[in-house]
Amino acid sequence: HEGVVLKDYVNGFPKESDMLLDASSTISLNLPEASNGILVKNLYLSCDPYMRSRMSNIQGSYVESFTPGSKITGYGVAKVVDSRHSNFKKGDLVWGFTGWEEYSIINAPETLFKIQHTDVPLSYYTGILGMPGMTAYVGLYEICAPKKGERVFVSAASGAVGQLVGQFAKLSGCYVVGSAGTKEKVELLKNKFGFDEAFNYKEEQDLDAALKRYFPDGIDIYFENVGGKMLEAVLLNMRLHGRISVCGMISQYNLEQGEGVRNLTCLITKRVRMQGFIVGDSYHLYPKYMEMVLPLIKEKKICYVEDIAEGLESAPAALVGLFSGRNVGKQVPSAPQF
Ligand code: NDP
């Protein structure tokens, strides 16, 4: 029974060697009579940027830290192997919180979502049909309420969340520009996801000038994934009454103390609304989101690019790779022998 363990709390950029593939633990494939839990075989795992904060010993965060020496936990897709819970039976497919290991015992399975639609790739439940999909939906529609013709900018635009934000905004009739960190990703944005324009932020000396090139009349909606210098430049380019949905600030996650952000007074002068959110507060909207997104997938009005790494042993490098931009699309490690 293999699993991935966090060796110790991490400072700065996480490294593959901060995690260990442990094959020594055993698990019984039959649950005890008294249990109210389920036993699952994990099929796909999800690498997500918020997991970085769980690798630190931070008190008072909205997510609990991992315990050094224990298996990493996170979102995943799994199949029920044994169940002592009346809502789940052997063979059910689920997505939600599970362990980075071959099999997991889930003691409170009420938090899991049952997978009803299997005519789409199961790995999608770590992405477009899972947490990142809901994140794009809530952050764009609930917070920014895009209107036809509005000008939308998305950072980390080729990633798990960003590629969806851009495509949803296009479907809403917006003008959409994305930034990403490689030429390959910029091509994807323009040629696969249908962004109107895209640029490689690493090749721009002056981000303010880059944004002025694509938004001569300013930005109505900014979907914030990166923070730092990009946010400073965006603030200068917001339009009156613009909205900024603060989804994430990945450029700050590995810093001891976040960088200060200049130009915040633009929020005042331009009457901009900047609002943060946590997707976990909005899962009651999941059925509504599924109703919207499933037909879009089936009618090929939306596409989703995944970066699948084979096997649990590839998971540590895949997770660390999020912070250097190694992933092209949603990073999904698969579990062994799947
Ligand atoms: P991605 O699939 O976009 O992967 C992360 C990407 O971020 C990398 O591929 C890289 O792309 C980019 N990146 C990494 N470091 C930097 C940096 N220093 N500066 C700029 N870009 C960087 O991840 P997700 O789509 O899963 O997540 C996107 C954002 O959404 C994250 O900030 C995440 O924390 C946040 N999030 C927030 C949620 C919420 O509830 N609020 C829920 C889910 C995600 P590139 O090559 O383009 O640099």
Termini separation comes to 14 Å
The total strand number stands at: 15
> Could you give the order of the helices and strands?
EEEHEEEEHEHEHEHEHEHEHEHE
Q: What overall geometry do the principal axes of the alpha carbons give?
A: globular
**Small molecules (ligands, ions, cofactors) in the structure:** NADPH dihydro-nicotinamide-adenine-dinucleotide phosphate
* Proportion of residues in helical segments: 10-25%
**Helix and strand composition category:** alpha/beta
- Low-pLDDT parts are none
Strand order of the largest sheet: 10-9-8-11-12-13
The largest sheet is:
6 strands, parallel
Output the radius of gyration: 20 Å
Please tally the helical runs, counting DSSP H or I stretches of 4 or more residues.
Answer: 9
Q: Which percent band covers the strand fraction?
A: 15-25%
Q: Whole-number average pLDDT? A: 96
What does this structure look like?
Residues 160-293 form the Alcohol dehydrogenase-like C-terminal domain. Keywords: Oxidoreductase. The structure is a single chain. This protein is globular. It is an alpha/beta fold. It has helices at residues 51-54, 131-144, 162-171, 183-191, 207-214, 228-237, 266-269, 286-298, 315-321; strands spanning 3-6, 19-22, 38-45, 73-83, 93-99, 103-106, 113-114, 151-154, 175-180, 197-200, 219-224, 238-246, 273-276, 306-309, 330-333. The model has no long low-confidence stretch (mean pLDDT 96). NADPH dihydro-nicotinamide-adenine-dinucleotide phosphate (NDP) binds next to helix 2.
